[in-house]
Amino acid sequence: MYAADGYARASGKFGAALVIGGPGVFNAVGAVASARSDGTPLLLISGETATAEQGRGSFQDATVLGIDDLRPFDALTEYSHIVPTPAALPQYLRVAFHAMLQVRRSPVHVAIPRDVQTAEVGDPLWNPRHSLEEPRILDVEALARFATESLAPRTRVAILAGGGALDAADDLRAFAEAFGVPVATTFRAKGVLPEDHPLSLGMFGYAGNPPAEDCLTSADLEVLLVLGSSLNQRDTLSWSARLQPRNGIAQVNAGSRMLGVNFPVRYRIVGDVRTALRALSNVQALGESTSARRAWADEYLQRPRFLNAEHMVSDAVPIDPARIVAELRKALPRDAALLIDSGAHRAFAGHYFPVYQANRLFSATGLGPMGWAIAASIGVSVALPGTRVAVITGDGCMLQNGLEIQTAARHGLDVMYVVLNNSALGNVWLRARTLGDGPRKLTELPTHDWAAIARSLGLRGVRVEQPSELATAFGEFAERGGPTLVDVRCDRAATTPIAPWAQALSHPDIFAE
């Protein structure tokens, strides 16, 4: 399911997985929940006991008359049903498919009994490819009101681009360049505007970059245009009360339920980002203030991009994670895809790894299950053939889903797993160590040789203990490709680049004030 999740994100289509009823379905629950949280379209198809055997104590009866493996998906999917007859199968698949691909994309589940699987169903008279085309919608009146009342008269305007903007990268770039608007992104949208573009502020929110944090929370910001973000906790610097532009926030989102629900918004605009940007490009008055807007934006755009930049060149041993991420970025091609797992390494990778292309950064940002990236990389690699794929993960994540590296080896995929091996559950350890020896020891792990384990599973396994060895290890993968694991012994006490986030957590949020 995690692999299908990765495929869906990288391909722009949907992912599918086949599992047995009962145990297979219950093993998939966490992955379905993560997909639901992030709005990933997944089709889960499970087998079930033959209809004539249901409710009779048959082996692995997971139907409503047995253990009922549909019920857990009531809250986790948009659709979860068992197909009653062969004749009903095409319609059940059609309904599931459209539920999966609605405006807020979602996982769905279809259970198919054994006798239905083997029956003749005829021609379904249905082409699912046509359903993949997203409808382009826009509340023209709401957008025009925002443009007239707030956007056109203002000079100090900035954009926060979220995941909903990923399919509008070209339009976002054209709009920003035409009107001199600086662009910050959420974690999920990194790269929707290349992070070395002159108008890129970098990432805002958790582990964000100083130019983005400073610009979007500045007292002189007049208008913030939010494109395709739900304005959740991490996208708003923990609902920061400092995120209050003088003339308010305009939020564009294709899902009306997302508008203003998580953060106060003055202008709520239902619409997909691409259509909204094309409409705003026709606001001629914006062009009259382009030079002044760019002059104001330059004050922030020219500020240093990274916190603790000296850590990126540190020769400390154990190795500083910032140095690992910086060396990885230098070694990989511009169009490489990066998957980031859950843990302290998420902050290091998000902050220190610039992304230069839309849909080249993947992370399960909603729930953050450990080990997601290890398996999801398989789907990403299949969806992006010829692309170097790297995974930044931790030794704790490897203990969750680490054996999935064998799948990458079996299929000869161009994936490199970079294990930040600090013998701890790093993110939790940083807090637990302040609470005494008991909590600290509960978050420490044995030091496993993941490079040796990788070699036993058919990957190229490399262990790195010195900073000077990083460039060679990463460069070999960039040149040769092939399934690779690099076990990097790193410092678990290294400073994570989240100072603004930590500061925001200590202040009342915008709703409290």
Chain-wise SSE layout:
Layout: H1 2-11, E1 15-19, H2 23-27, H3 29-38, E2 42-48, E3 80-82, H4 89-100, E4 107-113, H5 114-117, H6 140-151, E5 157-161, H7 169-179, E6 183-185, E7 200-203, H8 210-216, E8 223-227, E9 249-253, E10 267-270, H9 273-280, H10 290-301, H11 321-331, E11 337-340, H12 344-352, E12 361-362, H13 372-383, E13 389-394, H14 395-401, H15 405-410, E14 415-421, H16 426-432, H17 437-442, H18 450-456, E15 460-464, H19 470-480, E16 484-489, H20 499-505
Parallel strand pairs: 1-2, 2-4, 3-4, 5-6, 5-8, 6-7, 8-9, 9-10, 11-12, 11-13, 13-14, 14-16, 15-16
Helix pairs in contact: 1-13, 7-9, 11-12, 11-19
Written overview of the protein:
The protein has 513 residues and is of the alpha/beta class. It folds into three domains: 2-132, Thiamin diphosphate (ThDP)-binding fold, Pyr/PP domains (Rossmann fold, 3-Layer(aba) Sandwich), CATH 3.40.50.970; 140-301, TPP-binding domain (Rossmann fold), CATH 3.40.50; 309-496, Thiamin diphosphate (ThDP)-binding fold, Pyr/PP domains (Rossmann fold). Helices cover 34% and strands 15% of the residues. Helix 12 (344-352) links the parallel strand 11 and strand 12. The longest helix is centred in the N-terminal third of the chain and has 12 residues, at 89-100. The mean pLDDT is 94.
